[in-house]
């Protein structure tokens, strides 16, 4: 039985492709996506990609050099649309109506920087994608807008959500959400906007300015200080080396 299982796994891996795309090449991400199937990974070379991308179900869009590849939209549509069980990793996303739109189960975002979109950084409809170790900043609406969310559970970990015009996270719906090791900084309205604060569990998270409903440990109540454009915490800043894994609160590159 174990032999048959291993044989199946090896056979599955044999059909998983790595498709390489370069901004200076003849192909584009969207063109590469036409031939991508579940289990495939599209690997992006560093550079700027001026296009809008729908990631196929089960496909990974990956930049090996974190923030090396940038996908820039035209301001009228989402820059990236996630399908079920798809994933985007290591990419900068900007210039869209919304940065990323996700409507399907199993989608995930990691190691991304989503900024300077006309709407929200991430628009989730129906279900919140898994989002880890990312920056969501300087979007003209909210960092994360979650609407019509059903009664499921979601976890957001090691996010820096900063300088968004409206809210850090704006949630309507019944999803239980766990925020771990996240940093909210100077979002225009509220760090977390929700009709039911009982559904939001905040653990080891820094919110500045402090939001009374989510008052955290006193060690994480002071103003953070940054160095560089990626909101890296200064050595003497609150939140430095305070995450549950000993890293900084928020995004870690």
Structure description:
- This protein starts with a helix and ends in a 20-residue tail after the last strand.
- The protein has helices spanning 2-14, 29-35, and strands at 18-21, 41-44, 47-50, 53-55, 60-62, 69-72, 80-82, 87-89, 91-94, 100-102, 108-110, 113-115, 122-125, 130-137, 144-149, 153-162, 169-173, 176-180, 183-185, 192-193, 200-203, 206-208, 226-227, 232-233.
- The chain is mainly beta and 253 residues long.
- Helix 2 links the parallel strand 1 and strand 2 (41-44).
- The longest helix is centred in the N-terminal third of the chain and has 13 residues, at 2-14.
- The model is unreliable at 3-14 (pLDDT under 50).
- It has one domain (2-233): Single-stranded right-handed beta-helix, Pectin lyase-like (Pectate Lyase C-like, 3 Solenoid), CATH 2.160.20.10.
- The chain has a 15-stranded parallel β-sheet that branches.
